[in-house]
Amino acid sequence: MKKFSILFLLLFGLSIAPAITLAAECPDKVFWDGVELKKGQIGRVIIQKPTTIYKNVNGSFESSRTVKPGENFRVYANKSTYYHLGGGLVIKDDSTILYQTPSKTKLNQLNCKPTKAATTNFTIGNNISTVNAQLGAAKKSVVNEFGAITGIYHNNYDKFYAISTLSNKISSLYTKDKAYQVNGISVSNTISQLENEFGKNYETTGNTYPVEIITYSLPKYEANFFIDVHNDNKISAIYLVDYQLINKNPNLYPKKSTTLETGYENLLFHLINAERKSHGVPVLQSAPKVADVARKHSVDMGVNDYFNHNNLKGESPFDRLANGGVQFRNAGENIAMGYTDPYFAHEALMNSLGHRKNVINTAYTHVGVGVYFAKWTHGSIPYYTQNFIKP
User: Where is the signal peptide (predicted)?
Assistant: First the structure.
């Protein structure tokens, strides 16, 4: 398919402020306000005023360093008048700090013991009923670039799947679920583990480094493994596509349609929230007025053949939001062009540090996505705009 093999793939970000094993799973990580809880942790201290952290040296406390307001530290024990921070470090319990404990729910998640996995066998070519029996009904359905229907499945954005069908059979499958396996390989595995299982006969994004996508041509389908360059080059998502589906659209770019543009917008919204959930931060609400601003910017870039956060009138994203009647305290924008579907666009944004920060930033509560297919020599080319805000 080579969905990523095009001459130019552009991104800009701006901000202010298959057999599948599905287990009754414990979370891989537990987050408390965006910070990972560690085994043995009983709480945290948040520094209110400049104070000193001490180190236990042979039973005596010696000054280690001065800490500033706003810093916070994990607490592993509360003994007498000192909190123990691990590594022999302690801090005095006084008015310079605020001590907090995690909720019982968080502690239960932290101490969760996994139960025996329940195995099912839905993969490319299986009837969609096998998916519905395991995951329930799709939360939403959209049209993809092949003209197939894509169902979006998740449990409050956990166990996220986007599964397309042709004649009621699975024709493509994208997931961020760590319980999903392809020949023993799952999300969070490394490139070395992937190569050990599938070999080194694969295509990548080209001669770029680090590698962001690894694609294998398997007997019945194409297997794309997205690589997270900001997380030790581990697999961040898996995308399988039946060759029958690929052959329905042999051209690199799909035909322009309002239905497809809307489908891309909806899918990107859900991909953003699945990503945020996997990073332990709150999901975002949909903001139609913000989406309208984002969509108009994508249209403007596509029609007038430019690619920039500032439009040809010199208006910034923040100007455009204000002009669109959107009130905000915090705002940010991601733009991209040239990516043939939302999966490749989203994963590319996540591999660009500035865009990644916007996608998982806790300063935002709402997002609007706008997609436009502009005329191009080889058909039509998508422009993407994501506007993030906190009202």
Answer: 1-23
pTM of the model: 0.74
Confidence label for 213 from pLDDT (cuts 50, 70 and 90)? very high
Q: What 3-state DSSP class applies to 280?
A: coil
Q: Give the residue among 374, 146, 152 at the shortest CA–CA distance from 260.
A: 146
Q: Using one digit for the tens of pLDDT, what is the confidence trace for 367-378?
A: 999 999 998 877
Sheet with 72-75, side-by-side order of all strands:
72-75, 43-47, 97-100
Asked if residue 277 has pLDDT above 70, the reply is: yes
Residue 283 makes CB contacts below 8 A (sequence gap 6+) with 156, 157, 273, 276, 277
Surface-to-core class of residue 233, CB atoms within 10 Å of its CB (0-12 exposed, 13-18 middle, 19+ buried): middle
> Hey, what are 295's tokens?
């969509």
Token pair, residue 257, equals 């349609």
Question: Looking at residue 311, what DSSP letter applies?
Answer: -
Q: What is the pLDDT of residue 350?
A: 95
